[in-house]
Write the structure tokens for this entry.
Amino acid sequence: MRKILIALAASVAVASPALANEGRIEARGGVYWDGTSTEDAYGVAAGYDFDLGKTAFAGVEVSGDKIAATGTKVAFGATGRLGTRMGEAGKLYVAGGYTSKPCDLCEDATHLGAGFEAGFGNAMYGKIEYRHYFVNGGFSDSDAVMVGIGTKF
């Protein structure tokens, strides 16, 4: 019996760090602006965060966001993020990646930003994130602030 308890305790100890790694999917909305206009934006994202010790994490995310203006299309993004868990309060992170062009006459961009994600219970979360888009092709840079709600699995 003692060997069974030791084996069970060892398997829980080995498995526990893996349980902290988590996938997520979210819906989000916010505001997008450049030098000439401000528009509503909305989208979806899915990602996965990997533990880098007890408090640090790294993650990947794919997204599709649309600026709510005539002549725009869904901009697809690939983002990496690096951050720290702030105890029960949530996750603070920086993010960077690539975004495809949001309209036919636009250019693609790289983006860099920061955000905060707070958990609601075991499976839900909310987040706020700022991104600056470094637009290619001589177009003016743009910015966005998005608020999201999602589920973790």
Remarks:
- Helices lie at 2-20.
- The chain has a mean pLDDT of 87.
- The chain is about 10% helix and 60% strand.
